[in-house]
Amino acid sequence: MRSRENPMKMTYTGKALNLALVGSAALALSVTCAMAQDAATSGSAQGMRLGFIMASAQNRPDSAMAEGFRRAVEDAGGEAVILSANGSIERMSNGIMDLISQGVKGVATVTMDSVVALNWVESAKDAKIGYVSVTQQIGDPKTTPFEDVNPDVTAVVAENYLTTGHRLARAVIDRGMLPTDRTAKIGIVEGQPGYAMVDQLSEGFTAELDAAGIDYEVVFAQPTDWTPANGQEVCTNGLMAAPDTDVIFSHAEDMAIGCAQAMEDVEAPGKLVTAAGGAERASGLVRSGAIALSTCMAWADMGAKAAAALIEQANSGEGATGRLIETTSALIDADDLDAACPNLW
């Protein structure tokens, strides 16, 4: 039923930039309870330096995770070193080695490539420090089940995006967003290649449509760099070729923001749904129905959980345990945004 179409050293962001990355007082308030709870269960970080590497400081979820990590480490008495890879896997690799050379007790990354990350796991293991992957699993997602965490990893803090794709597609079906008298047209605004969630979200979404016996066609599916501008570009081009697209599925709310503008520009009649949501700047689009369905991600809490896992391992004096810390995001729409997602990022 379906048819598819020279190494640069890392730059410290420093504590001053950390504060600027997420300057919202609302975010700070929303994560305080989570920080305190995680700090209480993981123990003291007194005298510890722990590192966190964002894929890019320009990605708002990354900034929120870094802020959650920093607050958790500092609340436990430690020092957080926050770096940005500026979208470069090579810079992320160099950053991990820089942090190891500085004697940090553990490193967490917003993992840009789940396969390349196997090398980072080995580097951390050789240095006898903890390593946490945030938002993404470790290993090839095509051959490694989400629940199968590498035993040399301290923890994976992530959502099962395969399941998220299933949940969103099921909601699309149940809410009558697809036609029943003809082939439905689906557009997909993908995340950046290399992230495990990219394949998982698309696979889960289309698998649920297949399981439900939906007659559909994927009329466009293009990768992005996670930005609203790139999301708008993909949707503009996709709608030019298929203006009667019924549902556009965005892998993240930032791209959905741009896609909503593209849909408005051509008065596209279709519905826009997205994963990785809960952003303050997208809340107006959710309330208006321009984004028909989103999810509420607790990014800062994920950063805090990563810090707690590293602190716990460092205090235990033992090696990695390959722990899965699974998170789940609530589905949100215009009717339940405030109740289901009170702490927007």
From TrEMBL:
InterPro entries per the UniProt record, alphabetical: Peripla_BP_I (IPR028082), SBP_2_dom (IPR025997)
Keywords on this record?
A: Signal
Q: What would be one Gene Ontology cellular-component term for the protein?
A: cell envelope
Q: Which SUPFAM superfamilies match?
A: Periplasmic binding protein-like I
Q: Which Pfam families match?
A: Peripla_BP_4
**Main location class:** other
Question: Where would you find this protein in the cell?
Answer: Cell envelope
**Origin superkingdom:** Bacteria
Periplasmic binding protein domain sequence ranges: 51-317
User: GO MF terms on file?
Assistant: carbohydrate binding
Q: Which residues form the signal peptide?
A: 1-36
Report the family membership: Belongs to the bacterial solute-binding protein 2 family.
Give the protein name, as stated in the record. Ribose transport system substrate-binding protein
Q: Name the lineage.
A: Bacteria, Pseudomonadati, Pseudomonadota, Alphaproteobacteria, Rhodobacterales
